[in-house]
């Protein structure tokens, strides 16, 4: 598929949405056609699924239900947003994608990793990200940033409310993903300033776009 697909990954508060916005702005100012999207919730159907997935309710969501809702969101997201944008040769920036399933439902909830790899391949055989940027941050710092981000009126979502041990497993999952697929996945130290991280991301992405245009 044409276009260029970049996913952003990392624990809550690692700076994904901040960096997605900055990269989109920088690329657009260079004349690129950029689509910004996210999971869950990149489509109208996905918005409904996002509410189901993130709202804290008294009844806990079964791990299987959580997984199927995430996969349903992704199927819709790919068909409606990602695949058409890539076919139209656009740059797609997605705040979370398949590696979130591996990290959260696999490492976090304990769903078998081999099964997730199969489901991920089935969901997106033709639209795996060309580049995945994992923002690497200690869990304590991520949770601190999330608390600071909350305005006071905004509640904690179901994942943010999880235990520190859960977030540590998710973080370990991201590190494992980065180790196992170093061609696609780039680990970035997210303890640095917003601007320093942005400049590194921009340099990596511009390098990749240059290669793409030459081939
Ligand atoms: P995510 O989308 O990964 O949950 P956000 O981009 O919303 O994370 O960032 C979480 C909070 O941390 C926000 O209040 C944001 O302004 C702040 N933040 C983002 N990047 C940095 C950084 N490099 N250093 C300090 N604070 C940051």
Please name the defining characteristics of this protein.
about 220 residues; alpha/beta; Rossmann fold; 5 strands; about 55% helix; binds adenosine-5'-diphosphate
Fold blueprint:
Blueprint: E1 4-10, H1 16-29, E2 34-38, H2 44-54, H3 63-87, E3 91-95, H4 98-108, H5 113-123, E4 131-136, H6 139-149, H7 164-180, E5 185-189, H8 194-214
Parallel strand pairs: 1-3, 1-4, 2-3, 4-5
Bound molecules: adenosine-5'-diphosphate.
Adenosine-5'-diphosphate (ADP) binds at residues 10, 12-18, 145, 148-149, 190, 193-194, 197.
- Secondary-structure-based class equals alpha/beta
Give me the CATH fold name: Rossmann fold
Strand content: 5-15%
Q: Would you report the number of β strands?
A: 5
| Helix content class | 55-70%
**What is the multimeric organization of the chains shown?**
single chain
- Low-pLDDT stretches: none
Taking the alpha carbons of the first and last residues, their distance comes to 14 Å
Order of helices and strands: EHEHHEHHEHHEH
Q: Enumerate how many helices there are, as a single number.
A: 8
| Mean pLDDT across all amino acids | 93
Strands of the biggest beta sheet: in what spatial order? 2-3-1-4-5
């Amino acid at each position: 598929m044409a276009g260029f697909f970049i996913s952003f990954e990392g624990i809550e508060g690692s700076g994904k949405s901040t960096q997605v916005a900055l990269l989109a702005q920088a690329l657009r100012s260079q004349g690129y056609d950029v689509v910004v999207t996210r999971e869950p919730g990149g489509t109208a159907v996905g918005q409904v699924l996002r509410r189901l997935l993130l709202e804290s309710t008294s009844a806990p969501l079964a791990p299987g239900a959580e997984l199927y809702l995430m996969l349903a969101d992704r199927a819709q997201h790919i068909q409606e947003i990602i695949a058409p944008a890539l076919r139209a040769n656009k740059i797609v920036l997605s705040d979370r994608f398949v590696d979130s399933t591996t990290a959260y439902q696999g490492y976090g909830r304990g769903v078998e990793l081999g099964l997730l790899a199969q489901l991920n391949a089935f969901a997106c055989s033709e639209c795996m990200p060309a580049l995945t940027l994992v923002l690497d941050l200690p869990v304590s710092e991520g949770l601190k940033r999330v608390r600071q981000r909350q305005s006071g009126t905004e509640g904690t979502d179901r994942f943010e409310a999880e235990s520190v041990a859960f977030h540590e497993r998710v973080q370990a999952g991201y590190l494992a993903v980065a180790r196992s697929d170093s061609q696609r996945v780039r680990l970035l130290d997210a303890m640095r300033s917003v601007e320093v991280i942005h400049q590194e991301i921009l340099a990596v992405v511009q390098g990749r776009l240059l290669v793409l245009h030459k081939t």
